[in-house]
Amino acid sequence: MRCGEIMKKIFLIILLFLTVSTFSIQWLEFSNEVNTDVLYGSISFPVFFDINNFAVEKFINETIYNDIHSFLRETYQMSLDTKRIAKETDSTLRKSNIFIAFKVFNFKNYLSIVIDYSRYTGGAHGITTRKAYNFDFQNGIQLKLSDLISNNTRKKIIEKINKVIENNKQKYFDKKIEYLSQEQFYLSKEGLIIFFQQYEIAPFASGIPEFKFNYTEIEFLPDVSDDF
Length: 228
Known about the structure:
The chain contains four helices and ten strands; from the N terminus they run αβββαββββαβββα. The chain is of the alpha+beta class. It has two domains: about 5-140, Fervidobacterium nodosum Rt17-B1 like (Heat Shock Protein 90, 2-Layer Sandwich), CATH 3.30.565; about 145-225, Heat-shock cognate protein, ATPase (Actin, Chain A, domain 4, Alpha-Beta Complex). The relative contact order is 0.11.
């Protein structure tokens, strides 16, 4: 089964269909199993509707769908390569594995979707990449961290993260961070969450490190400060 057929099945064969309301945002959760001769696993992702702005709604949904499709297509191709190598070396083929899961956070006028893209295509273990999609759902702007916080706040966040690393050397690499990703954050009800990818600041066993900062301790830019 090819990648396009797999994605088509996600919409045609809906194993999990949930309607969820978060404030003024509603979304459906689509979930499906993937099972081919070289790849198996499960995919779950949200589809948003009734955002009161069809253009915004369409942009959010297409952004997520396109990334999932690209990830699935890439993983499927990697699985075919694994199959080819197994055949050439006369070794046992171990199916590749894929897993996509998500969480949705709606804080005031902001929408954060956090999606974990996990796959195993050979080697000691798989790898998970976390991606956050942060939107101002009133105007459809996809937010960067610099759209929200001041440079002064950014420096304070880096200092606090480095203090955590310094006090927990068994969990992190012995290296201070010097900058923050523009995309690796999301907005929960409890605060701003900054995260790092596997191996970025810590060994595999530490997973995907996250650091929470309460909104009261953050200096937001003037044009967004009233929202918090």
